[in-house]
């Protein structure tokens, strides 16, 4: 028998019910599977289903952790031994992992039951989730629109209440973008807060970090307590937290110095409803007693150019390794045109170009560090336009010239915090007149997730979002 009250609880709450023996892990899994059957045909968020794996976890006995018995989705970029991991690529549609990623193992140790993989664009390269292999993941608030990317499946699944928390990762905005587009909470941790091994020490030149998307702030904080910390091979470590992250939620944030902007970092005009939402949020913060002023960091270099070079170099390596495995050059029958074009463009650059991009990223990071000497928090729009329509960003187009200007208009402000390594979160504080979510992005100093969790907990109390449900909802 399924557990019909499932949707009334966050993940911490569900785990408490399991501990108190008011519900079993099997009942929660059955409910998550039933919810998947109900709404996933409309949104296409769960692209690899391995219910048997989760059932075997329960049969073997789950670890005693903060999320014991809670159903969970792994993003289809990370490895779970004995299950398919496709990375959204046709070439890898049958690839089966032979070991667990370090972060995956920490999720397992926290007690979750992993019943499937959430959708990702091919190799996580796009801020929308529309892989050729699986087709588009649709936004539960309006299925003509994207749920964001690259953690778009996680965003859609959490928003549609298939489950309260799911794995996500962020190399240029890929936790915050789907959090904004899908109307859920998303925290990008400080660089190296959570591990990326054992097969690599860092992702995208140190830009990438993994965590979760969630309905509640406390789920994000409790999960970070469970999974953070270096592994033996970590090339660097994040500053240690002052106290457990879970203790920050509900703690008085004090009077914060908050700077804000309602503009693109490039100075371009943004959607007027989003700009209005930023200003409304600034007024809300001032009303809560924070010191709020309009002030934005200068751009020391072009983040888009940095991302093109760094991500392109990493993509070129991925393609080369896949070609070596296949024993032949890869074509658009194997990988999407955007992936191949990114790799090909990278091959035209020199090692000095790559090091130059690293230097530009440092210059951006230095400018941000200087800016944050004058504030505790920086508020800006997560996205500068509403969630894109399905098909607006076409990674299989023969002409890819539309991609760069669309990204500049859509998500110009997220990647700079990947370059600086600073924590940043998207909080679902606004919806436009068409009913689409508009996330507000808050960034803090390096290592200061605690400050963000305190502020997020305060905002969750005064402007709650948990009871807002999209039209497509389990």
From TrEMBL:
Family: Belongs to the amidase family.
Role: Hydrolyzes indole-3-acetamide (IAM) into indole-3-acetic acid (IAA).
InterPro entries in the cross-refs: Amidase, Amidase_CS, Amidase_dom, AS_sf
Protein name per Swiss-Prot or TrEMBL: Indoleacetamide hydrolase
Superkingdom classification of source: Bacteria
Taxon lineage: Bacteria, Pseudomonadati, Pseudomonadota, Alphaproteobacteria, Hyphomicrobiales
Signal peptide (from-to): none
Source organism: Bradyrhizobium jicamae
Chain segments carrying region Disordered: 232-252
Domain Amidase: 27-450
């Amino acid at each position: 028998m399924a557990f019909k009250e499932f949707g009334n609880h966050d993940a911490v709450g569900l785990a408490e019910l399991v501990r108190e023996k008011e519900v079993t892990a099997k009942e929660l899994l059955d409910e998550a599977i039933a919810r998947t059957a109900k709404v996933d045909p409309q949104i296409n968020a769960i692209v690899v289903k391995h219910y048997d794996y989760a059932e075997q976890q329960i049969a073997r006995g789950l670890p005693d952790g903060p999320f014991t018995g809670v159903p969970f989705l792994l993003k289809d970029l990370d490895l779970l031994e004995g299950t398919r991991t496709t990375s959204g690529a046709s070439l890898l549609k049958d690839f089966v992992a032979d070991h667990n990623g370090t972060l995956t193992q920490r999720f397992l140790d926290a007690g979750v039951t992993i019943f499937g993989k959430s959708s990702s664009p091919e190799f996580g390269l796009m801020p929308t989730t529309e892989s050729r292999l699986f087709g588009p993941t649709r936004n539960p608030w309006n299925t003509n629109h994207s749920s964001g990317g690259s953690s778009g499946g996680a965003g859609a699944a959490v928003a549609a209440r298939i489950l309260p928390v799911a794995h996500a990762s962020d190399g240029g905005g890929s936790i915050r973008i789907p959090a904004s587009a899908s109307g859920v909470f998303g925290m990008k941790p400080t660089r190296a807060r959570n591990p990326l091994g054992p097969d690599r020490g860092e992702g995208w030149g140190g830009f990438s970090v993994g965590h979760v998307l969630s309905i509640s702030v406390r789920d994000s904080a409790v999960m970070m307590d469970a999974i953070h910390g270096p592994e033996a091979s970590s090339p660097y470590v994040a500053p240690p937290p002052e106290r457990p992250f879970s203790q920050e939620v509900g703690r008085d944030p004090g009077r914060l110095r908050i700077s804000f902007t309602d503009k693109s970092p490039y100075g371009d005009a943004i959607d007027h409803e989003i700009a209005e939402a930023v200003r409304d949020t600034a007024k809300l913060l001032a009303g809560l007693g924070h010191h709020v002023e309009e002030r934005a960091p200068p751009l020391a270099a072009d983040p888009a150019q940095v991302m093109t070079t760094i991500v392109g170099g990493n993509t070129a390596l991925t393609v080369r390794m896949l070609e070596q495995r296949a024993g032949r050059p890869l074509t658009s029958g194997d990988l999407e045109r955007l992936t191949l074009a990114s790799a090909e463009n990278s091959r035209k650059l020199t090692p000095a170009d790559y090091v130059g991009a690293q230097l530009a990223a440092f210059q951006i990071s230095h400018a941000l560090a200087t800016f944050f000497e004058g504030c505790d928090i920086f508020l800006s729009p997560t996205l500068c336009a509403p969630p894109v329509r399905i098909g607006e960003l076409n990674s299989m187009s023969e002409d890819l010239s539309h991609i760069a200007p669309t990204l500049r208009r859509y998500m110009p402000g997220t990647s700079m915090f990947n370059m600086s390594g600073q924590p940043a979160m998207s909080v679902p504080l606004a919806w436009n007149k068409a009913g689409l979510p508009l996330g507000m992005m808050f960034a803090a100093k390096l290592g200061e997730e605690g400050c963000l969790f305190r502020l997020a907990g305060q905002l969750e109390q005064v402007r709650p979002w948990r009871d807002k449900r999209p039209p497509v909802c389990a």
